Amino acid sequence: MLDARQEVVPFHGRTAELAELAGWRNDPAPLAALLVHGPAGCGKTRLVTKVEADWDDEKRLVVIDDADRWAWPDLFAKLQESMRSGPQRVLLTSRTTGWWWSSTRQRVADLDYVMGDLELSPSLDNRKRSFTLACRAFARALNAGHVGEEPPAIADETVHDLHMAALTAVHGDPTDVNRTQLVRQLKARDTGTPADKLAEDYLAVAPPDDPDPDLLVRAATRWPQLLPKVDELFTGKGAELADQVDISTLRTLAATAGLPPLEQVARRVFPDERFALDALPAMITKRLVDNNLRHSEDWLEQAEMWGNLSARTALAGLREEAADASQREVDAYRELAAQDPENRPLLADAMGDLGLRLIALGRTDEVIKVSEEAIELWKQIATDDPETMPQLASALEQISYRYSALGKREEAMDAISRSAVMFQELAQLYPALFRVDFARVAGALARRLYLVGRRDEAADAMHWSLVNWREIARDDPRYEPELARNLAACGGMIADFGRPERAAEAVEESIVVFRRLTAANPEFTRELADALLRHSQLLDGLGRYDEAPFAAQESVVLWRKLAVDAAGRAGLAAALLNLVDVAGDRAVERAAAAESVELYRELARTNPVHHQVNLARALAAHSEQLVVTGKAVDEHVREMLDLCARLPLQLVMAFGADLAMSLHSLGRALSQLDHHDLSIAVIEQVVDIWRTTAPRNQSGPLAYILALQQLSLNLRAAERFDESRNTAHLAVVLWHMALPQSELDTHAAYADTLAVYGRLCAETKHDLDNALVLAHRAVLITRDIGGEPDKLELALAAVDAVIDAFDDRHAAQKRLEELVSSSSAASA
């Protein structure tokens, strides 16, 4: 009768809460999650059931009841499963909030959900009306007479308590009693098996000798007199019971148990990988730290406790809490350093950790401030004690990564350069100790130099990195895997330096090493397969079209052997997607694209967050294969576009560049084969991706402009001429915003944009004077930089088209002669 799911008592009240939930439902945000929380018996289930009954179909509603009883991996899997359905609302319920909710809130927000919570009061405002409605409902259900008593006074009353009193009244039993007596009266009449809150209540008034530990701990949150029994049960058996009870029970213990049982539970929880990413270890650590701090005056002990708490909260996604704990750790070490300068290295290390915590929160200014303070501190330490130079070099290396994460490229370059110089000096003095560090940091320096366009210096740094790795591996074969990894990783970079042959040689050398390692230990098969994939791409780029497919096929064969788990199937799907690019055989490419789609579709069903982008890329490749062979493609493209539209921002920022390139290729193919509407939709998606990622991607601004140019061409092919011209004009404007004119005049891509815009102005008879100037400039730039003949032809054709568009062609020709004369004089 008291089971909320049976709805014996009609839903009533909660008008304000329903209004707030309606506003949440109607909010324009596509994804939103709300936690409805309150003590047991306050009516959470009834409220959510009412919301479900009144829900419309515009947005999908996912309900996760008792969310505080879910382990994080299970809750994450549920959210991932629901993400495939487009705009939606996720409604969670729980008795508690605390750190489990903070962890969930911060992690789910990363998936682009707008997060919120709604706290329910324990009881309803109109107690008398609620009591009367409950009495009438129970009387009807039991065929009993009408009961019209006043509601009794119950300490800390909940809706559940009031309904218990109503049922007691309908039975004819006294209601002017306390909660314990109410439960006993109901228990005496109940012949069934109680569930949920009533089972907790029955246990509280008549605890058995051997209670169910989960039920006992849940009951103790409503019946505090049970807490000593909880402590008694878990003292001595805490470690054993920790393996048996629900994670929600352990979380409750973290908040309510005495220290002796909690310490026993902690000994089992901390090393258990099941809880590694859950908030539970952090919750237990916080209780233990709070207790220890009350009895400790040792600053070093306090600092170590805060550092431990910071690490555990960070693992649980408790980013705000981790930063707070890390700041307290720094404060403790600052006190120690003030007492004794010998403690400054501990303070500097703690500052480095704090920088990482602040990066996770996006608190850029604070990251820079604390990181630079740490570097200055290390400089002071190294000045006083030259033997700490390695720590200063390591600190500079770490701060370079933080600057890089914040998009501060020059600062990152300066820090990693200084680190490399220091490690180089140390490696010359103490090769056995520091040669590995120099090899590693030289490789990082090469990547940083490459990203800022200093390619010759990057090539030199990579050369020194590889020279050292070869020497290290020669002297100690344990480092052969590291040599092979660095050879494989540098291949793409060396190719971009304009040295594709050397790049292929480096990757080929890595393959030789990985083959030898794999023969001795099959664990290296994955890395061999990856190296073969990279080699196939380099061979294809070199025009060695006979060799590239063999390397790609061998990579596929190796991944097939490894496709016994999700990681292996993901590797196989990636190898197949690569085969599409290099096979040189339409039938092989179509089959590979289709298989990669099926593999990624299966992977995305169980883990959308990690595989949605690759599924979209596979769908793009498969669609391109279909369209060039005249097959129906609409369904695949629409699925891909829908998937792209629902990608969380973090995925777009991380993997958008690869996705955009796949879509760009598809968009061109669709346009060339007259699928204009689809091609425009695809390229518009490319434009959106580059617009989003451009601020954090060095190649993003140029890619964004080129995507706009492609969109303008696709719009032109669809005969949407005004839109096409306006889009091309935006590309021209962005070029001028991105670079000074002196640099623009060296860019072939800029000349292409000018030519395209000039041609479109001619076709729409728009701003022809300016169009002639821009088209003429396109010709000049292309000639000056020795551009490809077809590009020069495109620019000259744009000039002719603009002249033909003038009403007075003779005047236009004269204006062109003036431009030619002016440019000749300027060059002279």
TrEMBL record:
Domain of life: Bacteria
SUPFAM superfamilies: P-loop containing nucleoside triphosphate hydrolases, TPR-like
PROSITE patterns to which the protein is assigned, alphabetical: NITROGENASE_1_1
Gene Ontology MF terms in the entry: nitrogenase activity
Full protein name: Tetratricopeptide repeat protein
Organism: Lentzea tibetensis
Species lineage: Bacteria, Bacillati, Actinomycetota, Actinomycetes, Pseudonocardiales
